[in-house]
Write a structure and sequence with these properties.
Elements (H helix, E strand, L loop, with lengths): L3 E9 L8 H23 L4 H13 L20 E7 L4 E8 L5 H11 L4 E3 H10 L7 H4 L2 H13 L17 E6 L5 E7 L20 E3 L4 E7 L1 H6 L2 H12 L3 H16 L3 E7 L4 E2 L6 E8 L4 E6 L1
Parallel strand pairs: 3-4
Antiparallel strand pairs: 1-5, 1-11, 2-3, 2-6, 5-6, 7-8, 8-9, 9-10, 11-12
Helix pairs in contact: 1-2, 2-3, 8-9
Amino acid sequence: MNYGIAIHGGAGTILRSSMTAEKEEQYTHALRTALHIGFAILDKKGSALDAVEAAVRSLEDCPLFNAGKGAVFNSEGKHEMDAAIMDGSDLCAGAVSLVQNVKNPVSLARKIMENTSHVFISGPGAEQYAQAFGLRLETDEYFHDDFRWEQWQKSLLAGKTILDHTDTNDKKFGTVGAVACDALGNLAAATSTGGMTNKHTGRIGDSPMIGAGTYANNKTCAISCTGHGELFIRAVVAHDISALMEYKNLTLSEACEEVVMKKLVVMEGEGGLVAIDKNGNIEMPFNSEGMYRALKSSAGKEVVAIYK
């Protein structure tokens, strides 16, 4: 049985011309580290669920990406984080949104999935669960990053929100996610984000929404998205790919092409996703200039890439 994992760290106008060699190496190293952490679990016959959680936690702990420690500032200068995780073997899922001070929102999403009767909890209610489950909390200072602060100040002056990769100067960070297929053929997906810079307090994107930014079903595939959240919600991107496979018998590649390169393009929805099917086939399509992405499979294939 082929097994493997794919991860992403955001998609958008990521150009080689605007990236220093040092910065590129930092991103590549962070992606490879998360990739190897997740794959090591699969290699030891661990579960896809454990693999995607571990990979996303690694990306949440890296300030280069807009999730966890690297989460951007909202309109009130706060960090409101969203995350989701889904088990393709039984369609169980957990999601949190608008959480503050939780070091690893993806782990809170998993706790919600496994230890409550709920799927989606937001704000103070989710934070209460984080405390009840003994998850690690951090002060506001932990999440403060000078680069993110300056980005927020620019956004305030411009009087607008900034999508992860649409600002003309800074296009090198974003939502993080992972998908995996384990040795038993079980699929899982996880996504985590800090949202948009200067987003209105309470705004929620596609990342924590099951079927929009995150989805996993053993019958078909596991998907984690990154991009313009509002458009991904309206297109129900993650589930649409699964539905095309289940009801129209499209391959993973064909379904991804239809949704990312056709449907989203018509809607002017910029972004991409990582996907894996029940046979371990991996796709990493995006309709933007670039996407931080990586994959590793039991067949020996390993890819870490940024540009188109």
